[in-house]
TrEMBL record:
Residues covered by region (Disordered): 140-159
Upper lineage: Bacteria, Pseudomonadati, Pseudomonadota, Betaproteobacteria, Rhodocyclales
Pfam families the record matches: DUF3305 (PF11749)
Taxonomy, superkingdom: Bacteria
Chain intervals with Basic and acidic residues compositional bias: 140-153
InterPro entries: DUF3305
Organism: Thauera aromatica K172
Name used for this protein in its record: DUF3305 domain-containing protein
Amino acid sequence: MREFPIAVVMERRRLDNLWVDEAWEAVGVVPAFAEVDPAPRQIVAETGRAQWRVGGFALELFRDEAENYFSNLSAPVPKVFVMWRREGELALPAAVSVSYGEAARWLDAGEQVDGVPMSREVADWVGEFVNAHYRPEPRRKVRRNDPLAEDRVASGGQA
């Protein structure tokens, strides 16, 4: 399986601030294998806080990103990265990824990106892909700067 269907949970919090009255954030990602309707659906409505479940997304894995997936899985808390944009009254996800590199490219392009903790189910799926496709580069010996090396060469090997 090269795709993992998911839905994103977006949260709006009311703020007591003169310049900004609300803040949006992606707060979760859930499997969506049997999804019928991917449209945004409000799932929490509390004073000062509301959440929407937005479906229709799939995590995709690519061999050339395997090192970035490995780096993500090696982190203390692996993440699913959600790029989102404000559209009218809602903030809606535009793309999802488990690649550090892709998330960095989105941020470099000025996009809004949140990292949400990766579920065990997603982590296992990404881990299988990494085990099958990631081969670390062999380590190369690094020569340290030796301040006496030039003196040895100049004196015929004796310092």
